[in-house]
Structure formats: C-alpha cells, structure tokens
Write a structure and sequence with these properties.
Layout lengths: L2 E6 L2 E7 L14 E7 L1 H11 L3 E9 L2 H12 L8 E3 L6 E6 L5 E6 L11 H4 L4 E4 L4 H14 L3 E5 L7 H6 L2 E5 H8 L4 H8 L6 E5 L5 E5 L2 E5 L12 H14 L4 H16 L11 H9 L3
Helix pairs in contact: 1-8, 6-7, 8-9, 9-10
Length: about 300
C-alpha cells in the first residue's frame, strides 16, 4: 500500500452543532455534539488511511489525558503513532468547535506555546511515498519535507497559517497548497492567480490555493488553471481542507497526474462536508470513487 507520512498538529476536538453562531455573550444550546480527533496533519493522515493507504503521524502532544485521547484516536484509525513526541508537563492541543446551520465552523484552540519544538529526522520518513506537513511545527516540517524531496517523492505543504519567519518550510516543499486568506496576506492581493505568481519568490515548487466553494486555483507553468468545487449541501466544513490535502497527497503518491489528484481531493472534501462531526465524516475509498463515478 502507498505510505504517507504526515507532520504537524494533532488535536482533540469538542464539536458542537448550533443553529447560528453566537452573536455575543450569553448561554446557548447545541443540538448535537461529537468528541473526535482533529488537527490539520492528523486529519490528513486519517484520510490517507481511510482511502486505502498507510499513514504515520509525526507530531507533539503533552503527557495529559488529552494527549492519551489523541494518540488512541489515531491508532484506532490505523495511523502509526510511534513518531509522536510526548512532552512532560505540557498541554496537548484541544479545540472547541461550533458548527452553524450552514456548516461553517468557528474554532478555538489551545496548546502549550512551547509544545512544538525539536526536529524530525530523515530516518522517520524513510520509505514514505509522500510527506505532507502543516505549518504548526516548522522545526519538524523542514527536515521531513527535505527528506521527501531528496528521495524524489512528493513533499506537500498545507500552508493554512502565516509562514512569516518560516519561509524555509515553503522552500522545502515540492507542492505548496495555500489557504486563500494565507496566500492573500502573503502576496498582498486577493486575485488567486496573481497571488500564486507572487508566491513563487518563496516557493521552489508547484503552487495552488484552495478557495472553499470556489474550488482550487493553480499554475501550470505560468498558465492559470482552476477546478470548480463539487456542489453539495454542506452540513459541516470542519476538516474539509485537511481531507482535501490528505486525499490529494495520497493520489500524488499513487502516481496520479496533478489535475486527477486535485479532483480526487476535492471529491473527498465534498463528501466530508455532507457529514457532521469533523474527522468522523472522512469518507472511505469506495465512497469517494462512487461520488466521482456519478459525476463523470
């Protein structure tokens, strides 16, 4: 099976479904809830595993009960956790998430500020068919991405967080997929293709940007390209971007062409959006294949 190593944040998410986002201080009632694992890289790892690959997670958690739950949740999904660091006396990442009636989410996260320290090693990603990293652990991401690039396999960065001061993470990747607001802030323009062209001063590889229900934009050489999002009735967008990146990376590792990998990632994210509960809604390979077959 195709092996994907994911580097970055793993969280425990407390997800509450509310009719509307709270307009201000007060007491509010949720009509549903889930307690699930989350986190950008961790959800991508679970996605790769559910879609038929093998996955391992490299990240940092504390030695608390939250960390226990995070590791147990990953292991239950078949994700390897031997490379997870446990930091004594530190708080593991925990998020409270409100999902409104339109499926939009509000996330409040806490972790010890000095949790994500120390590097990964090339040996930890040896044998991987692809590496995916987020921006939460730059010291871990750079060596892992560099090792993947040196091995000639995809080194994918999910850049949904301000890279200021950590531009070396951008340069280490072979494929950088920005979140729309992150790219706009970096490039100083909201025009996706113009922003992607400006981003090349920081990136030594292929660049794209996700734009929610507008789909994904990328550059083919200098040629602007766009893939529309699949229209669905969104119930919960929590984790949709993570699922997109995990599915995209897996298909790249399997040898798919870029546009095919992007379409597969978009389909996996669309299916996830139709289900409440963050990670609980990540689809399986047969479900994504069936979704795509209905839209040929």
């Amino acid at each position: 099976m195709t092996a994907v190593t994911c580097v970055g944040i793993a969280t425990l998410d407390l997800v509450f479904a509310v009719a509307t986002a709270p307009p201000g201080p007060g007491k509010y009632r949720a009509h549903d809830r889930r307690e699930v694992g989350g986190g950008v890289a961790a959800n991508a790892a679970v996605t790769a595993a559910r879609l038929g690959g093998t996955a391992q997670m490299l990240g940092c958690v504390g030695d608390d009960a939250t960390g226990d739950a995070i590791l147990a949740g990953l292991a239950a999904e078949g994700v390897g956790v031997a490379g997870m660091r446990r930091k004594a006396g530190l708080a593991s990442p925990l998020s409270v998430v409100l999902v409104d009636g339109a499926g939009e989410r509000t996330v409040v996260n806490h972790a010890s500020p000095d949790l994500f320290t120390g590097p990964t090693t090339p040996d930890e990603v040896g044998g991987a068919d692809a590496v995916l990293a987020d921006m939460r652990w730059p010291q871990g991401a750079v060596p892992a991405l560099a090792a993947a690039r040196a091995a000639g396999v995809p080194a994918v960065l999910d850049c949904d967080h301000d890279p200021a001061g950590h531009e070396d993470v951008l340069r280490a990747a072979t494929h950088v997929v920005f979140a729309g607001p992150t790219l706009a802030a970096l490039a100083g323009t909201a025009d996706p293709h113009g922003a992607l062209r400006r981003s090349r001063k920081y990136v030594d590889g292929w660049v794209a940007v996700t734009a929610g229900d507008e789909g994904v934009y990328w550059l083919d050489g200098d040629e602007p390209r766009h893939l529309a999002a699949f229209p669905v009735d969104a119930v919960d967008t929590l984790g949709a971007g993570d699922v997109f990146h995990g599915a995209f990376t897996l298909r790249l590792a399997e040898g798919a062409e870029l546009e095919e990998a992007l379409r597969f990632g978009a389909a996996a994210a669309a299916v996830k959006c139709t289900r409440f509960g963050g990670r609980a809604g990540i689809p399986t390979r047969p479900e994504v294949d069936a979704f795509l077959a209905e839209r040929r």
